[in-house]
Design brief:
The structure holds two protein chains of two kinds. In chain A, 65% of the residues lie in helices and 3% in strands. Chain A is mainly alpha-helical. In chain B, helix 3 (56-70) packs across helix 4 (77-103). By secondary structure, chain B is mostly helical. Classes of the chains: A mainly alpha, B mainly alpha.
Chain lengths: 222, 113
């Protein structure tokens, strides 16, 4: 089946990329707080991924092998370049699996690979009622995880980290994935059920208010 | 340092992100249906958007290294250098991946995201 192309998806991916780049510029800006927007970019990226990964066939091996190849070829090349040049000290027997297999030196790779797998398992979740159940389960897991978090410090955006000794922040990084997976499935939900009736000013208002409050939260805690 | 006053309600940040993302998806779809000029295949702006979109994974992977290399320069030169390095590294990585991919057995193209 020929995959349908959506030009607006390219636009959203481009915006997501620019937001994430900007969020890492905090070390370059004279005012570090200007380097923000990463959570907006990541959320957009996961939602777009869920939107695009449809339809899904029933052949797991073919489907997953194409995804893994597209994802891991650049990851391994980049990982090899980084390890050979600046981070040789990171490599040890205790973390070679984490660095090259899962979750890799790039936390979102570990997340998106997990979402590909879960997305395939949940490929028959297509009806609104099924999505309601799924989002309710995710909300329940989110609440349980949030109650376990140390919320006296900024922790909802914590990700896994790898050093010489191995993988760290497993709980905090895994908690974030509950939310990111909800974004991923929200993207699929919109693919299946979005019916945009008309171009409305309310979309702009929602964008601006959502973006403003997200950035305001980050700036305040910086 | 000014502390986030409602730190225990930090989930509000993620709710606002979700609000932003869903509204962006709706806005994007509405703009496409309206056939706005910058989303047309023959538009220069769309070509730039498409290039950014196709390099998104490579950009994510190389930006840490590029930014690290640009840190020693003063603002705003460091921003320009970082951006140039990010896109240069991303293009090189993309080309390297394409080269390696050609050496591997083909996958069924219709399955590729």
């Amino acid at each position: 089946m020929q995959k349908k192309r959506f030009p607006f998806v390219d636009m959203l991916k481009a915006i997501a990329v620019l937001l994430v780049i900007n969020s890492h510029f905090d070390k370059l800006y004279p005012i570090a707080a200007l380097g923000t927007g990463g959570s907006l970019g990541n959320g957009l990226f996961f939602a777009v991924s869920g939107f695009c990964l449809w339809p899904i066939g029933n052949d797991f091996r073919t489907w997953m092998s194409a995804r893994v190849r597209r994802l891991y070829l650049p990851v391994w090349l980049m990982t090899a370049a980084v390890l050979l040049t600046t981070s040789r000290h990171l490599l040890s027997l205790s973390n070679v699996f984490f660095i090259f297999a899962w979750p890799t030196m790039f936390w979102f790779v570990g997340g998106i690979l997990l979402f590909y797998f879960l997305g395939f398992l949940l490929r028959n979740v297509t009806e609104k009622s099924q999505f309601t159940v799924l989002f309710s389960v995710l909300l329940g897991l989110y609440i349980l995880g949030y109650l376990r978090m140390d919320t006296s410090v900024w922790s909802v955006e914590s990700t896994w980290s790898i050093d010489h000794a191995g993988l760290h922040k497993l709980f905090a990084g895994s908690f974030k994935l509950i939310y990111d997976f909800a974004m991923f499935m929200a993207g699929r939900y919109l693919r299946l059920h979005m019916d945009t009736p008309a171009h409305r000013p309310s979309y702009y208002v929602a964008n601006i208010t959502g973006g403003y409050f997200s950035l305001r939260c980050k700036v305040s805690h910086a | 340092m000014h502390k986030f006053p409602l730190m225990h309600l930090q989930f509000l940040n993620q709710i606002s992100v979700m609000w932003f993302v869903i509204s962006m998806m709706l806005l994007g779809s509405a703009l496409e249906k309206r056939e706005v000029p910058f989303l047309q295949e023959n538009s220069t702006i769309y070509h730039v958007i498409q290039k950014l979109s196709r390099l998104s994974l490579e950009i994510y992977l190389v930006q840490g290294t590029a930014i690290h290399l640009a840190e020693s320069f003063v603002f705003p030169l460091n921003i320009g250098i970082a951006l140039a390095l990010i896109f240069a590294f991303a293009v090189v990585l993309h080309a390297a991946v394409a080269w390696v991919d050609k050496k591997l057995p083909p996958v069924r193209r219709k399955e590729i995201f």
